[in-house]
Specification:
alpha+beta, Dna Ligase, domain 1, 2 domains, 16% strand
């Protein structure tokens, strides 16, 4: 593992949140000021291909990178917040339904987070007052 791969791996696994390549670039520049964004993308791709980290794809959002420990995600359709959650493991059920094994599954549940619901409720209450 190169020095960049090692540091990127550590950044993805130690920092909270689901970081974009730009956010990882910002963090890595603190350690290696001359690193380029192309180096970040190349090493992120290598780490993903090696199965050491995973890419989280959400339409309309930049790719984010995450640790590989089994977990699922909640995605707020208002603010885009991505939150880890652990649902019941669906592996056995999926194998039974598919009739064979599979490589992996990635469960994302789209919803409106509590903060956005609160903001929406507050906004609706204010509209009602001023009508």
């Amino acid at each position: 593992m190169t020095k960049y791969e090692k540091q990127i791996y550590e950044i993805v696994n130690k920092l909270a949140g689901h970081l974009t390549a730009d956010q990882i670039f910002t963090e890595l520049k603190k350690i290696y000021p001359s690193v380029s964004l192309a180096t970040i993308y190349n090493n992120l791709n290598k780490l993903c291909e090696a199965g050491l980290i995973r890419k989280v794809l959400i339409e309309g959002s930049p790719d984010r990178y995450d640790r590989i420990a089994k977990h699922d995600h909640l995605v707020c359709t208002k603010c885009g917040r991505l939150t880890d959650i652990c649902f019941e493991d669906l592996t056995a059920s999926l194998k039974e339904q598919l009739g064979s094994s599979f490589f992996a599954y990635d469960l994302k549940v789209f919803y409106i987070c509590p903060e956005c619901r609160d903001l929406s409720a507050a906004g609706n209450a204010m509209q009602h007052v001023y009508r």
